[in-house]
Input
Amino acid sequence: MNHPANLSIEERVAALEAAVAQLQQPSSTPNFNWVEQFSGSFKDEPEFEAVLAYGRAIRQGDDSLLGLVDES
Output
């Protein structure tokens, strides 16, 4: 393909139209919910339960759990 500076405006518009048409085509990869792929993968991990508790405490403005974090 020629460098864009060497193309006429018509050629540049045609290239843009082709690129837009390609982008408008349905994706060949099936849509999937990536969250479902990982859902439940940490259900038996006590550390994950602690992370959830910390997040819950932060969202609720409870700083009491934040002092329990081991920063080593």
Residues 4-68 form one domain.
